[in-house]
Amino acid sequence: MPSEGGEKPEVGQDQAPAASTKVDWIIKVLRLLAFLLTLDATLVMALNKQTKTFTVATIGTVPLRATLSAKFQHTPAFVFFVVANANAALHNLLMLAVGFAGSKLSFKGLAPLAVPVLDLVNVAIVSGGASAAVFMGQLGRNGNSHARWNKICDKFESFCDRGGAAMISSLVGVLLMIIICAISIIRLRNHYGYNKLALNSSVLP
Amino acid sequence: MPSEGGEKPEVGQDQAPAASTKVDWIIKVLRLLAFLLTLDATLVMALNKQTKTFTVATIGTVPLRATLSAKFQHTPAFVFFVVANANAALHNLLMLAVGFAGSKLSFKGLAPLAVPVLDLVNVAIVSGGASAAVFMGQLGRNGNSHARWNKICDKFESFCDRGGAAMISSLVGVLLMIIICAISIIRLRNHYGYNKLALNSSVLP
Lengths: 205, 205
Fold this sequence. Notes:
Two copies of one chain form a homodimer. Chain A contains four helices and two strands. The first copy, chain A, is 64% helix and 10% strand. The longest helix of chain A has 43 residues, at 157-199. Chain A has one domain. The first copy, chain A, is mainly alpha-helical and 205 residues long. The first copy, chain A, has a two-stranded antiparallel sheet with strand order 1-2. In chain A, helix 1 (16-46) runs antiparallel to helix 2 (76-101) and helix 3 runs antiparallel to helix 4 (157-199). Chains A, B: It is found in: Cell membrane. Chains A, B: Homodimer and heterodimers. Chains A, B: It comes from Salvia splendens.
């Protein structure tokens, strides 16, 4: 951030500005990656559709065909996956914008508290969406003999493969968002409360 | 916390000790509730089993019966649910212990950073477990005509009801854990960095 140099001597740490600028850029790069991954997961899953024609019976020599489509809308877990990832992509984009405009804006009141808390909420939502989709995908791939649910990925291979790619993208995105949120928390403590905290154990919950 | 009174004047806020003690107790109560809810979710799901005898055919006048069991182990999403909730219950119990022993321990190095970061990771894991179980339960209740997966909750009502209770318990637990983590983040900023932060916008990611 260009607005950092020596104008905040009250922070009271020697190497704080240089280290902070570096961490700022690390967070921005991680956020950009998280944005791209969640956006990718959203688009790949939302555009995932496979239409296939099956021969269901043969009357004499005339085959009777049926055309079936696999769409993400047919599975509630995949709909939640798309909504959760779209929401996270939007959140990451907004936070990137806030980060770049940060030096020009003055944040007061509840605004600075909102960023890590929103990060946290988004981690929970995307983690839920990715996890639900993964287990539904596992069911599609392997089936469940106890519930007599047959696998369907042997019929819709490319639908399953594309869905799996979206899930991997989303899971890596969640991981990056957890890392971003953890860095934010650690940095807050390092910046302001590290030494006091070591003494003031009452901050621990 | 009994060790708080006036021995830490370096915190530098007038009403900090009184407010901090109150927030300490709020966090402890929320954590106890989160512990009980995740433990409840673990036990209810792990002990969930229903055995039922169905008449599958009748030969002459002799009914042919089959006994089927519904167990949580049959569904990978429910296994993950149990593991995630057990892990979160253990985490909350440990953090409660750390909180109560906090005044006697001196935390240095990475230890104080670990609490909110572990909270964050646990929120992500339990959210994933609860969400996967909810969508699998929805599939059991409604089925999915597109994939030709039939509902099974009409045959195993009490298995589904107990599973649903465990899921509600887990979801409320996740919500409480999100609130705990958010309070920790907000408190860190309030304690140490609030006023500085309003000026130092570079802390925003």
